[in-house]
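Quick one, T. Sequence first:
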Amino acid sequence: MSSSDDGTIMMWNHSDFDETTIKLKRDFAVRERQGHLLIAASDQNDSFRIVRDSVRDIVYTSVQQKSRIRCCGISPDTSLFAFGCDDGLAQLLRLSPDLDVMAEFQLNLQQESIRWCRFSSTKNYVAFCSADSTVVIWKGDDETMVLQDHTDVVHRCKFFDNDSKLLTASYDATLKVWDVATGVCLYTCQGHTEWVLDCDVSLDEKMLASSSADKLVKVWDARDGRMIYCLSGHRDCVRSCRFAPDSSLLASGDDLGEIRIWRDGSLVRSFAENTAIFSWVTDLSFSQDCRHVVSVSNNIKWWSVDGTQPPRTFPILGSHARFVWHNADFTSFITVDNAGVLYILKQL
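Structure tokens:
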């Protein structure tokens, strides 16, 4: 049970909250498999871990890596697991249906730090984004493709259009869309003046979104990269943006803890955290019915999009977390805070 300054009391089934066990890092990935939750993350010793439902059920532990593990990923069919390190090393694991390791692939991409990795939705491709301004797409076995056109750190990416295209966001203040088959940059979205920190593709794949350190959110036409809307009003760096499942709404979160909901280029509603240290909204997401938003900063918070219900808060032990995962029906939530604590929350 938890109580909050917002006047709410919540009851949770918190199935994983043991400070004496493994300390995980904030960069993690989650997939559901046969009624279980598979969680991939690095630990305090820079080993890659796969756990099932709890840190007490360890499926796999790698050897200690020579540098920090910066990102983790799990393929949609849960057969492949990936991680990338600060020294440019990427590794993939192929697991059997019984979660036994069948094969390991090690890619020395000769890059600087790998900042992000993302699997495609159907083909089990994985894209690794690097601090050296490149993206490497692994297509299986020894087949890789290098995308080169950005001029600074590539921070985020996302496959779309039946995995035929890849959207990338960079510290060079641009978005780019690539042809996954040929590696050709199809177009560049220009208009931000500072780092682009997040990006998304609407579910109907008609729009792209970007959020930036320039305090702006922009919406782009996914066909040609033409800017549709420039959304202003945030008073600090906008660190996260996400479309609603019906593509009608867009949420954005900034470093002052403010979340804004947009529709057709206009502000629908804004929510604000109490000003506090580490109030950066680093991740957010809509429920399937588009009625609620979950966000993570120095706590996990649930907001009513129409503003008719007060927000609900779950405090974390650490000062902040980076990502929050939720299941399809918006009843289970997972995050890892900077104290190394894994939270698996289920609403009762």
